[in-house]
Specification:
Mean pLDDT: 93
Radius of gyration: 20 Å
Number of helices: 10
Oligomer: single chain
Strand order of the largest sheet: 3-2-1-7-8
Helix content: 25-40%
CATH class of the domain at 78-184: Alpha Beta
Low-confidence stretches: none
């Protein structure tokens, strides 16, 4: 079976340099392996994602010089997500949760991903007699106790006791939206994904995804986690940290210049001021890609690469 990769951004705002770096590395991995590449727009959060943001995401990727072989839209997979909920509920793994964020935060237990660990307050509550569809509360996965042994392709140890370190994750939100953890594993199976290349900020979710894959009898793709771009002020370069959006970048640099900057940030720089992704394919190798996160600053006029994160120097 041929390999199939996917780039799966959330279209909740403008693509920023961190988005574009993740897209470029995923694209280079796929094209250097002659693998199929799927663009999946993970738009199930209807409070933040819009068709306009999805179209802007496509435009940003094209501006950088990227293409893809197929496309899927996560919100169109509702039936498959609900079928997965049925399967989990049949196994007794789904329960309703009435806790709000402030109640969870009050327990002051940090999760492995930096969020707040769910303490299990509602864990023994049953579903309504007529099933989860009758429930107007959030639905959570009843995780098994114990350690999940797991490593990614780089050898990064992803082993975790997800119940102890993360807590039972939400599968369906109170507003009815299917949550990330469930949607992503169902969609990876539906898209026949065999390789997942993503930023290492998502690594702490790996054990939960493996539990879900095994509970649902789904394939277990190979994963690889790569460096992040960090804001000069601290934290990953992302929408929530006020990173510059691609439209502002486009007003001040060409797609080729942006590609050259991102390649240099990743350790793939050729010294050229402008490159296309295709220029990078023939010599692409993960051994050349920086392992350390890189600090980037937006001056208001241009992107500046400041080097490795101080904590990793």
């Amino acid at each position: 079976m041929s390999e199939r990769c996917r780039f799966a951004p959330t279209p909740s705002g403008p693509a920023h340099p961190g988005t574009l770096l993740a897209a470029l590395l995923c694209w280079l991995d796929a094209r250097s392996r002659a693998a199929q590449l799927q663009l999946r727009l993970e738009d199930v959060d209807h409070t933040r994602c819009t068709p306009e943001h999805s179209e802007q995401m496509r435009a940003a990727l094209r501006w950088l010089g990227l293409d893809w072989d197929a496309e899927s839209v996560q919100s169109e997979r509702r039936a498959a997500h609900e079928a997965a909920l049925d399967a989990l509920a049949t196994q007794g793994l789904v329960y309703p949760c009435k806790c709000n964020r402030s109640e969870i935060r009050a327990h002051a237990q940090r999760a492995a991903d930096g969020g707040w660990r769910y303490p299990g307050s509602c864990r023994e509550r049953p579903l309504p007699a007529r099933g989860w569809r009758e429930c107007r509360e959030a639905l959570r996965l009843r995780l098994p106790a114990g350690r999940v042994s797991l490593r990614d392709e780089t050898g990064l140890d992803l082993s975790q006791d997800p119940l102890a370190e993360m807590g039972d994750p939400v599968l369906r939100r109170r507003d009815g939206a299917i949550a990330y953890h469930l949607a992503v594993v169902v969609d990876d199976a539906a898209d026949a994904v065999t390789r997942i290349v993503r930023g290492r900020d998502l690594a702490p979710s790996s054990a939960i995804h493996r539990v879900l894959q095994r509970s649902l009898g789904l394939p277990e793709p190979v994963t690889r986690h790569h460096l992040l771009l960090l804001a000069h002020e601290g934290g990953k370069l992302a929408k929530l940290h006020g990173a510059v959006g691609w439209a502002e970048l486009r007003a001040r640099m060409s797609g080729g210049e942006a590609c050259a900057f991102l390649a240099a940030a990743a350790g793939l720089g050729s010294g050229c001021e402008r490159v296309t992704p295709r220029d990078l394919v023939s010599e692409f190798d993960w051994s050349r890609v920086h392992e350390q996160d890189q600090v980037v600053r937006w001056s208001g006029e241009r992107l500046e690469l400041l080097g490795p994160s101080p904590s990793e120097r």
